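Me: I'm a chemist; would you kindly supply a protein sequence with its structure tokens?

Assistant:
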Amino acid sequence: MKFGKVEHPELIDFSMPENHPDTEILLSEQEDKGESNIYVGCAKWNRQDLKNFYPRGTKDELVYYSSQFNCIEMNATFYRIFPAEQYQKWHDKTPEGFKFFPKMTNEVSHLRRLNDKVYEIADRYLEVTTLLKEKLGTIFLQMHNNFGPKNWDRVVQFVNYWPKEFPLAMEFRHTDWFTDEKVAQELYHLLEENNIANVLVDTAGRRDIMHMRLTNDEAFIRYVGANHESDYARLDDWVDKLAEWKAMGLKNIHFFVHQNLELESPLLSAYFIENLNKKLGTKLTVPSTLLKNKPNTLF
């Protein structure tokens, strides 16, 4: 993952930004909906990326992965729309309570850039994605770095089109969405009015995307480690922040762990889950193979 990568992460100020003032207002207005829904996972389940995670002799990576984590951020669906039977297989292989958070196909976000040709593609995407049934979590749409506010009308049209029965999160990367206060407020208002989550990206080289502005009762967080010892301290800060937001009224926490070079994503995820359990009193499963082989230098 090259986005936000820096050569010297030790020079980056990773201090957690203050809450956006409207986040506190929004959370204070949330009605009590019972227990929190907390999902933590990696971006991929293939053996090549999750090195040293699978026990020797593992035959089916998804079956094993889903026995250790309660969700997956599905980057694979960004690159193509899979055949219907594949979604059914994914559904059937995973246990009750497991969730998929699939990425919208790049035909919609990058190739056609939300133009008027994307709606048929989005409908086709949703038709097969719904085969994940009760295991379908929030779908997320990530726009290209160069997709800026001049495309505002396309964003509005897409948001108005989107079937509201499917939870959606949107990730904007062009700097002008956040550096122009008027533009930012219009975007946040649009997302809030349509119950769409505003994706938070914690990555070294783009601290402006740590806008700390939630637009509904879902914190959809894409954490990108820098392959540096600071990765763990940053996760500690997120545990504290999520505990703070939960106390304010946050109900849905969806946290996905990446690294620039995918070497320790399962370890980082396990570390985060273990500390989140301690802080929030939750009982998320900590991957058993990682518990047995925790390196003292990291934990």
